């Protein structure tokens, strides 16, 4: 791989920089990063990872065959407009923007582009992202393979149809937050029932890892695995009864649907913003 220009220097950008370097996929001198205006952040990335940082667009894009869009969706229109003259059809554009379609990116850039749209999650920071990726028709087989290699440096990478990416965003993009929410509840209850904080944390973490491994490796369904824990008249039955009475499973389903709808809404809002600008 030649050179990547990363536009946006936040947590997602850092996860990819770290993953690419740890896996020896690219030389640090070929990873170039820019952001809107936070020079301190660029200095941190330069100091920590030895990557190149700049606000000089000519230098940023010179020889770049990969461009990663890693700003917030609300900043996408202005950021892409700002760099559009440097984007070419030969480059591969990798987007991690929630809710922003490949068509919208081309519309902002006002030119056809080879784009992959992805939805990773913050577990990319520890190489454990669950990432879904879609590619448009201009992306070559070689670029698909490149993309897969890049995303596999931060975890699991699965190709899906673009129409499924909003649902993926609601499910696994936001997913870590749902799990942290559950962990918060487990931590609070551990404190209330008098368990020592550090011990409780270790037990909670191992319980989550163990349950995840069971779902991954067992041939049983998650429903069956839950039933296996639940002895008749026992503790789990008493606990699950409270969850059922409180409609917790339905609430989780509504939560994922709401996040999916929000991803769709964010994409539409950006389209509207563009229409308003043009009219
Ligand atoms: N966080 C998450 O869980 C996930 C996020 N995503 C997606 O990843 C993207 C990035 O998220 P995250 O890393 O959390 O965001 P951060 O807020 O951490 O970082 C955003 C970065 O974008 C930069 N930026 C803003 N405007 C511009 C511009 N005009 N030109 C260049 N850079 C600009 C900011 O620079 P400055 O600091 O100078 O303003 C900052 O470096 C989002 O689109 C999000 O939807 C995808 C999956 C999961
Ligand atoms: O909350 C968000 O919009 C981003 C996208 C997926 C996770 N975080």
From TrEMBL:
Binding positions for NADP(+) per the UniProt entry: 7-12, 70-73
Compartments where found: Cytoplasm
Gene3D superfamilies given in the database record: NAD(P)-binding Rossmann-like Domain, ProC C-terminal domain-like
Alphabetically ordered keywords of this record: Amino-acid biosynthesis, Cytoplasm, NADP, Oxidoreductase, Proline biosynthesis
Origin superkingdom: Bacteria
Name by which UniProt lists this protein: Pyrroline-5-carboxylate reductase
One Pfam assignment: F420_oxidored
InterPro entries: 6-PGluconate_DH-like_C_sf, NAD(P)-bd_dom_sf, P5C_Rdtase_cat_N, P5CR_dimer, Pyrroline-COOH_reductase
GO molecular function: pyrroline-5-carboxylate reductase activity
Span of domain Pyrroline-5-carboxylate reductase catalytic N-terminal: 3-99
Annotated PANTHER family: PYRROLINE-5-CARBOXYLATE REDUCTASE, PYRROLINE-5-CARBOXYLATE REDUCTASE 1
UniProt key word Cytoplasm: yes
Role, per record: Catalyzes the reduction of 1-pyrroline-5-carboxylate (PCA) to L-proline.
Reactions that this protein is recorded to catalyse: L-proline + NAD(+) = (S)-1-pyrroline-5-carboxylate + NADH + 2 H(+); L-proline + NADP(+) = (S)-1-pyrroline-5-carboxylate + NADPH + 2 H(+)
Entry EC no(s): 1.5.1.2
Pathway: Amino-acid biosynthesis; L-proline biosynthesis; L-proline from L-glutamate 5-semialdehyde: step 1/1
One of the record's GO cellular component terms: cytoplasm
Domain Pyrroline-5-carboxylate reductase dimerisation: 162-266
Family of the protein in this entry: Belongs to the pyrroline-5-carboxylate reductase family.
Gene Ontology biological process terms in this record: L-proline biosynthetic process
